[in-house]
From TrEMBL:
InterPro entries: Dehydroquinate_synthase, DHQ_synth_AroB, DHQ_synth_fam, DHQS/DOIS_N, DHQS_C. This is 3-dehydroquinate synthase. GO terms for cellular component: cytoplasm. Residues 176-319 form the 3-dehydroquinate synthase C-terminal domain. The keyword Transit peptide does not apply. The gene is aroB. Keywords: Cobalt, Lyase, Metal-binding, NAD, Nucleotide-binding, Zinc. It comes from Aequorivita vitellina. Its EC number is 4.2.3.4.
């Protein structure tokens, strides 16, 4: 449980990761090293990073504001300008130290600055560890619309140290856990059975399951790096989940939902739709819903909320020829891609969620 090797973007765990990072810096001898953080990781994670690196505080650090609402081109402009002002050249390395916003935005900035700098991801949240830092997707939101601008570009490597999770509040741990639940649903009954009763306080078991979750995503991405077929299954629950997240992000009267909180709702909705349209077993539907709701409190949706979420589906990146395409499940571990779902069935899914 130390490494997951790829031609590019290999994932190294804990002490092996830090050793690989030091070896890479020594071998490459970059002209400059830059660290991208947000306000939270600057306070809670940067000191630990500098200690592991054996470095002083003179490494140029670029800080962006914390939060999904800052994952935009305006933040990119600030980082691009900072790199330019600090004389970054094409032999520089950018280290993205943070959650999914930092790794997504930092990867995009590095991939586009002077037509491409090397970047290394060091995810500090559970969500970033099991999802955002693996697979080479980089990018930013367009207004409230999720991940509309970006490129697929693999990091040089990913360093994964679960000690960073000690800095997280519980709700952020569970936000990442939603992606792990998704991996179980799309990949195998065996992993679903292991993951569904996890207590995130059980650090030993959590570490094992994080490794397995990263391995699952890595296996899928390796087989389909540019999302032509199999990789689409990783979007299970995300079609409606992203719509819900975007709606709550742009609304002045709604609380902002964490990514995993929105995806958790999307998983229940997608599993209901799967049961109604391609035969996902009813008893399993209820068991899956109960499992997810054990971790994520219910959210209220008005008729207007649902109508607006449906309108947002037209911006989903899986769409083709004007059709909104869903990932659905015939059973646990048996996903179907490119499924068309009626608005009536979406309304029924929200009704199921409300009344469960």
């Amino acid at each position: 449980m130390e490494k997951i090797l790829n031609k590019k973007g290999s994932v190294y765990f804990k002490e092996l990761g830090w050793n690989k990072l030091l070896q890479h810096i020594e071998k490459q001898k970059p002209a400059k090293l830059f660290i991208l953080v947000d306000n939270n990781t600057k306070t809670h994670c940067l000191p630990y990073f500098l200690e592991k690196l054996g470095a002083d505080e003179n490494i140029p650090t670029i800080t962006i504001p914390t939060g999904e609402e800052h994952k935009n081109i305006a933040s990119c402009l600030k980082v691009w300008n900072s790199l330019s002002e600090k004389n970054a050249d094409r032999n520089s390395i950018v280290i993205n130290l943070g959650g999914g916003v930092v790794t997504d935005l930092g990867g995009f900035v590095a991939a586009t600055f002077k037509r491409g700098l090397t970047f290394i991801n060091i995810p500090t949240t559970l969500l970033a560890m099991v999802d955002a830092s693996v697979g080479g997707k980089t990018g930013v939101d367009l207004g409230h619309l999720k991940n509309q601008i970006g490129v697929i570009k693999q990091p040089e490597m990913v360093i994964l140290d679960t000690n960073f999770l000690n800095t997280l509040p519980k709700e952020h741990l569970y936000s990442g856990f939603a992606e792990m639940l998704k991996h179980g649903l799309i990949y195998s009954e065996e992993y679903w059975e292991r993951i569904k009763n996890l207590t995130v306080d059980n650090k030993v078991e959590l570490d094992k399951l994080i490794f397995d979750s990263v391995a699952i995503k890595n296996e899928i991405v390796t087989k389909d790096p540019f999302e032509t077929n199999l990789r689409k299954t990783l979007n299970y629950g995300h079609t409606l989940g992203h719509g819900i997240e975007s709606h709550f992000l742009e609304s002045n009267s709604k609380p902002t939902l964490l990514h995993g909180e929105a995806v958790a709702i999307g998983l229940i909705l997608a599993t209901f739709i799967s049961s109604e349209s391609i035969g996902f077993p009813k008893n399993r539907l209820n068991a899956v819903s109960e499992t997810i709701l054990n971790y994520f409190p219910k959210v209220n949706f008005t008729q207007n909320d649902i109508e607006h979420v449906i309108k947002l589906l037209v911006f989903d990146k899986k769409n083709s020829n004007g059709k909104v395409l869903f990932v659905l499940l015939e059973n646990i571990g048996c996903p179907h891609i490119n499924c068309i779902v009626s608005n009536d069935l979406i309304f029924k899914a929200f009704e199921y969620y409300k009344n469960f």
